[in-house]
UniProtKB/TrEMBL annotation:
It comes from Mesorhizobium hawassense. PANTHER family: 3-HYDROXYACYL-COA DEHYROGENASE, PEROXISOMAL BIFUNCTIONAL ENZYME. It catalyses: a (3S)-3-hydroxyacyl-CoA + NAD(+) = a 3-oxoacyl-CoA + NADH + H(+). One of its GO terms (biological process) is fatty acid beta-oxidation. Monomer. This is 3-hydroxyacyl-CoA dehydrogenase. It is found in: Peroxisome. The keyword Isomerase applies. CDD domains: crotonase-like. SUPFAM superfamilies: 6-phosphogluconate dehydrogenase C-terminal domain-like, ClpP/crotonase, NAD(P)-binding Rossmann-fold domains. The keyword Isomerase applies. Pathway: Lipid metabolism; fatty acid beta-oxidation. The lineage of its organism: Bacteria, Pseudomonadati, Pseudomonadota, Alphaproteobacteria, Hyphomicrobiales. Pfam families: 3HCDH, 3HCDH_N, ECH_1.
Length: 691
C-alpha cells in the first residue's frame, strides 16, 4: 500500500486508513491507492466488511482545493464513490473531526456512517463558490430529506454528529474508540446479512418532499445570494435530486460543478480561502510563542466591552478595568445584556453564557492587571491619553506581558516610544462590534518583537478572528483605503449623482450597502469629529451634522428613517441641499452612471492598496483582500480589491485613473508605480508586492 492509504484486517473486517496530513484531503496520491484498495477488497473473500477511516485529527476534509484549475488526474472522487456502491458487503465510514465536502461525499458512498460524538459533517463547497461535485447534492437528500439537505448545502454550515444522527445522516454516534466501534458495527452488519442498499437506491425520504415548500425555501435562500452563482446552483442540483432519476441528477450536478469551478467567482473565493491562512503566517521559523491565558482590557466602553467579550468567547480570563465603579458597572452590564440577547436568539446556551461571564473580573485598580499576559487598551482615541495609559502599564505589567493598543489611526511607533518595552508592544485594531466582526488588524510597530507578533497572530485564531499583520501608517490598511474609496463621494453628489444612485452602484456591484447608507448606520458624527480634528471639511456631510442629522440614530442623515425602521428613504431636503451647494460652486450637474461611480471610488481603492504594498505596510496583496472582505464587506465573489483588479483589468484601471487625474487633478487618481507594474506583469508578486 502507499503511505497515504493503508489496509489492515481485524476479524474479517477490512480497515482502510487514509493518512494525508494535515486534513486528509483527497489528493491524487490518496485517490489512486484508495481506489485500488477498495477494488481489491470488494472481491476479497477474506473481507466480510470494509471500514474507511483516517489517521490524524480529522476524517477527510474534502477534495484537495489546490488541485482545482489543474488537469484532473484519474481516478476522480466520483469513480471511487461509484466503485464503493458496487461493493456487496457492508461499507462503513468512521468519522471524526470534520467530514467535509468530498470527505462527506466519500462517506455517503458507504452503506453506513459511524461518527465520534465530537465530529462535524458538512458540505461547505458553496463557500468556495462551488457545489458538492461528488454526488453530495443527490445522495444527501436521500438520507436527510430535501429540505434539510438544501439548508446544509446552500449554507455550507456543518452539523454535529448528534444532529446528523437525528437527521438520518449518521447511523451511530460513539463516545470513545471510534475505530473499534466502527469495526464492531461493520462486523455486526456483515453477520446480520444483507441486502446492503447503497444510498443512491434509497428514495423514500425524497418521496415525501413537498416541492412547492422546497421551492419557497430555495427562493428565500436565493435572496441572500447577492450576485453569487453557487447558492443558486446548489439549490438547482438538490431540486434535480427530487425531480430527476439518480444518474440524470448526478450528470446535471457535474455540469453545474464544471461551470462553477472554472468561473471567476469560485477562483475568487478559493483565493480568499488560502489568503486568510497565508495572512496568519509570520515569516521566521520556530518563533517561541508566549502563553496567554489572562487578558487585561482597559476601557469598558463599546470597543473595550466588545474586545473583552471576544477574548471571553475564546475561553480566556478577562480583567476589565475602568476609571470608576459606575463606568465599570455599566460596561459589565452591557456585556451581560449582550450575552442574554444571544441566549434569547438561540445562538448561545444558558450554560455557555454562565461560563463566559464567569471569566470576567472587573477592577478600577491598575495593579489588578499585574497578572495579565496581554493587556489591550481601548481608551479614548487621543495620543496623550494613550501615552498616559502605557506609561502606567510600564510600571505595572509583568515582564513578558504583551501590551496592545486598539487605536484605529494613531501612530503605534509613537505610542511604543512612550513605554520602556517597545518590543512587547503592538496594535490590535478590532472592528466594531469587536465581539462580532472577524477582522483583526495586528499592527507591527518598528520595534515589535517577532515572537510577540506570532503570539498575537496565533491568539487571534483562538478567539475566532481573521488576523492580518499590517504596518504603521495613518489608518493602517483598511481605514486608509476606506478614505481613498470615499474621497470622491461628495464630488459625485455635487456633480449630479444622488446618495441613492451611488449606493445602488455599490449594491449592484455586490456590496451589502453603499457608502451613504453605511455612513448613516455608523453615525455621520464620527466622520465629522475626525474631520474637525484634522482641519478638514465635507460641505454636505458637515451641513447635515450641523443640522443634527447623524443618520439612523437621529432618524435622518443622508436618508430619512421612519420611526425605528432601518430602511433608508430618499430625503428630498438632502437632495435640495446638494443642489444648493452645487449651485453655490457653479457646478453644472449632470447624469452620472454606475460605471463612473465605480471608477471614481473603487479604482482609487485599488490604487491606495497598491501604494500600501509599495510602502510595505501590507506584506501581500492577498492580505489586503483579507482585510477588505472580512472588515468592510467587499464581495467575496470578487475576491477582494487586489484580486478584483486582475478581473477588472489592471491596464484598464490605470487608463481610467489617468483619465480622472487629467479631469480632476486630484492625487488619488495618480496611478501608483506598483499598480502600473501589476498591469505590465499580471501579478502583484511579480510586480514586487510580496515581502
Ligand atoms: N484542500 C487542500 N488544503 C486544505 C484543505 C483542502 N480541502 N483544507 C485545509 N487545507 C489546508 C489549509 O490550507 C492549511 O494549509 C491546512 O490544510 C490546515 O487548514 C468534490 C469540490 C478542515 C475545518 O472546504 O474548512 O471537497 O496553511 O488552517 O483551522 O464536492 O481547513 O497549513 O499550508 O484551515 O484546523 C471542501 C476546507 C473542499 C474544507 C480545518 N472542503 N478546510 O481547519 O486548519 S471542495 C472544504 C477547512 C470539495 C467536493 C468538493 C479547514 C478545516 P497550511 P486550516 P483548521
Amino acid at each position: 500500500m502507499s503511505s497515504s492509504v493503508n489496509v489492515a484486517n481485524e476479524n474479517g473486517v477490512a480497515i482502510v486508513i487514509i493518512d494525508n496530513p494535515p486534513v486528509n484531503a483527497l489528493s491524487f496520491h490518496v485517490r489512486k491507492p484508495l481506489y485500488e484498495a477498495l477494488a481489491a477488497l470488494r472481491d476479497d473473500p477474506g473481507a466480510k466488511a470494509i471500514v474507511i477511516a483516517c489517521a490524524g485529527r480529522t476524517f477527510v476534509a474534502g477534495a484537495d482545493i489546490t488541485e482545482f484549475g489543474k488537469p484532473v488526474e484519474q481516478p476522480e472522487l466520483r469513480a471511487i464513490i461509484a466503485l464503493l456502491e458496487t461493493v456487496p458487503k457492508p461499507t462503513v465510514a468512521a468519522i471524526h473531526g470534520t467530514a467535509l465536502g468530498g470527505g462527506l461525499e466519500l462517506a455517503l458512498g458507504c452503506h453506513f456512517r459511524v461518527a465520534d460524538r465530537g465530529a462535524k459533517l458538512g458540505l461547505p463547497e458553496v463557500k468556495l463558490g462551488l457545489l458538492p461535485g461528488g454526488g453530495g447534492t443527490v445522495r444527501l437528500p436521500r438520507l436527510v430529506g430535501a429540505a434539510k439537505a438544501l439548508g446544509m448545502i446552500v449554507s455550507g454550515t456543518p452539523i454535529s454528529a448528534g444532529e446528523a444522527k437525528a437527521a438520518g445522516l449518521v447511523d451511530a454516534v460513539v463516545d470513545s474508540d471510534l475505530l473499534a466501534e466502527a469495526i464492531r458495527f461493520a462486523g455486526e452488519m456483515a453477520d446480520r446479512g444483507g441486502p446492503f442498499v447503497p444510498v443512491r437506491d434509497r428514495n423514500n425520504r425524497l418521496a415525501e418532499t413537498d416541492l412547492s415548500a422546497f421551492d419557497a425555501q430555495a427562493a428565500e435562500l436565493a435572496k441572500k445570494a447577492r450576485g453569487l452563482d453557487a447558492p443558486r446552483a446548489c439549490a438547482e442540483a438538490v431540486r434535480n435530486a427530487i425531480t430527476l432519476p439518480f444518474d440524470e441528477a448526478l450528470a446535471a450536478e457535474r455540469q453545474l460543478f464544471l461551470k462553477l469551478v472554472s468561473g471567476d467567482q469560485s477562483r475568487a473565493q478559493r483565493h480568499l480561502f488560502f489568503a486568510e491562512r497565508e495572512a496568519a503566517k509570520i515569516p521566521g521559523k520556530d518563533l517561541q510563542k508566549r502563553t496567554v491565558s489572562r487578558v487585561g482590557i482597559i476601557g469598558a466602553g463599546t470597543m473595550g466591552g466588545g474586545i473583552a467579550m471576544a477574548f471571553a468567547n475564546g475561553g480566556l480570563q478577562v480583567t476589565l478595568l475602568e476609571t470608576s465603579d459606575e463606568a465599570l458597572r455599566r460596561g459589565l452590564a452591557t456585556i451581560e445584556k449582550n450575552y442574554i440577547v444571544s441566549v434569547s436568539r438561540g445562538s448561545l446556551t444558558e450554560e455557555a453564557k454562565r461560563q463566559r461571564l464567569g471569566l470576567f473580573k472587573g477592577s478600577t485598580d491598575y495593579t489588578d492587571l499585574a497578572d495579565c499576559d496581554l493587556i489591550v487598551e481601548a481608551v479614548f482615541e487621543d495620543m496623550a491619553v494613550k501615552k498616559e495609559v502605557f506609561g502606567k502599564l510600564g510600571a505595572i505589567a509583568k515582564p513578558g506581558a504583551i501590551l496592545a493598543t486598539n487605536t484605529s489611526y494613531l501612530d503605534v511607533d509613537e505610542i511604543a516610544a512612550s513605554t520602556s518595552r517597545p518590543q512587547d508592544l503592538l496594535g490590535m485594531h478590532f472592528f466594531s462590534p469587536a465581539n462580532v466582526m472577524k477582522l483583526l488588524e495586528i499592527v507591527r510597530a518598528e520595534k515589535t518583537a517577532p515572537e510577540v507578533l506570532a503570539t498575537v497572530t496565533d491568539l487571534a485564531r483562538r478567539i475566532g478572528k481573521v488576523a492580518v499583520v499590517v504596518g504603521v501608517c495613518h489608518g493602517f490598511v483598511g481605514n486608509r483605503m476606506l478614505s481613498a474609496r470615499g474621497s470622491e463621494n461628495e464630488f459625485l453628489l455635487l456633480e449630479g449623482a444622488t446618495p441613492g444612485e451611488v449606493d445602488k452602484a455599490f449594491t449592484d456591484f455586490g456590496w451589502p450597502m453603499g457608502p451613504f447608507q453605511m455612513g448613516d448606520l455608523a453615525g455621520l458624527d464620527i466622520g465629522w469629529r475626525n474631520r474637525k480634528a484634522r482641519g478638514q471639511t465635507a460641505v454636505i456631510a458637515d451641513t447635515l451634522c450641523e443640522q443634527g442629522h447623524f443618520g439612523q440614530k437621529t432618524g435622518r442623515g443622508w436618508y430619512r428613517y421612519e420611526a425605528g425602521a432601518r430602511e433608508p428613504v430618499a430625503d428630498p431636503e438632502v437632495e435640495a441641499l446638494i443642489r444648493a451647494k452645487a449651485a453655490e460652486r457653479g457646478i453644472a450637474r449632470r447624469e452620472i452612471g454606475a460605471e463612473e461611480i465605480i471608477e471614481r471610488t473603487l479604482y482609487p481603492l485599488v490604487n491606495e492598496g497598491a501604494k500600501i504594498l509599495e510602502e510595505g505596510v501590507a506584506g501581500r496583496a492577498s492580505d489586503i483582500d483579507v482585510v477588505w472582505v472580512n472588515g468592510y464587506g467587499f464581495p467575496i465573489g470578487k475576491g477582494g480589491p487586489m484580486f478584483w483588479a486582475g478581473l477588472a483589468g489592471a491596464g484598464n484601471i490605470v487608463e481610467r485613473l489617468e483619465h480622472w487625474h487629467r479631469q480632476t487633478g486630484r492625487a488619488i487618481f495618480e496611478p501608483a508605480a506598483m499598480l502600473r507594474r501589476f498591469a505590465e506583469t499580471g501579478s502583484w508578486e511579480s510586480a514586487g508586492g510580496a515581502r
